[in-house]
Design brief:
seven-stranded mixed β-sheet, 14 strands, alpha/beta, 5 helices
């Protein structure tokens, strides 16, 4: 199946399949310029005549931009799927942690984030797509040891639910602020699930983190499955 993936910014990405246009954790909506600039222009998306669904994993402003609330009025048939820590929006599907839903022809499973909200595991148009949101192995320098130990346990408990699961496309945090632990979460998932293609997210203005991971010896078993989408508006066309 032909699939197009755009990196929008931070954790914001878009996925276009034969029937659907899916947007995850959209945040930065300037400057103008449409998908080529990493921005969703409802007029540009509406002419695709596809099912449009916007997902937000939690209420942090770097993962949720209220501008998406206007999309159902601007894009015929557009749907919203929002974590229930976001203020309720009429017409949106508000999803809780550790739940399953069938909505708009898509099966949605949520995992419990190690920060706020949810991670999404979707079955859509014959594909399985995972977007982590802020579910990550957050190991912060300066935090007490028991905090970091609990974070490790909580993260592994969620990702172990995906052991052996075949995932076509996984969007995983690779956060340089974690220093030497920047890829612990992504690495654990890549060794737990069966992922065809991985896209790094949550690296902010440090796109060099992607190349660092590709060169890191830890990624040797899967580095050929990391899509190097580093710049806003960058797109990859895949066959999955």
């Amino acid at each position: 199946m032909k699939v197009c993936v755009w990196y929008l910014y931070h954790s914001g990405v878009a996925v276009e399949t034969e029937k659907s246009f899916l947007v995850f954790d959209y945040w930065r909506d300037t400057p103008a310029g449409g998908l080529a600039a990493g921005v969703i222009d409802p007029k540009e998306i509406a002419v695709k005549n596809k099912k449009v669904i916007a997902f937000s994993s939690h209420n942090h402003p770097d993962h949720y931009n209220p501008v998406i609330l206007g999309w159902p009025k601007q894009i015929p048939g557009a749907e919203l799927v929002l974590s229930d820590d976001i203020p309720a929006c009429p017409g949106a599907l508000m999803v809780g942690q550790d739940r399953e839903y069938d909505h708009a022809g898509i099966h949605i499973q949520t995992l419990v984030s190690t920060d706020e909200g949810v991670a999404f595991l979707l079955k859509a148009d014959g594909l399985t797509i995972y977007h982590a949101g802020d579910l990550n192995w957050w190991h912060w320098a300066g935090e007490p040891g028991d905090f970091n130990e609990k974070m490790a346990r909580d993260y592994k408990a969620q990702i172990d639910r995906l052991r052996g699961v075949k995932i076509d496309l996984a969007f995983l945090p690779v956060d340089p602020r974690l220093r030497g632990q920047y890829a612990w979460g992504a690495d654990y998932l890549m060794r737990t699930a069966q992922v065809k293609q991985m896209v790094c997210i949550h690296f902010g203005d440090r796109p060099q983190a992607i190349e660092e991971l590709i060169q890191d010896p830890v990624s040797q078993p899967y580095r050929d499955r990391i899509l190097p989408l580093a710049e806003r508006g960058q797109m990859a066309e895949l066959t999955l």
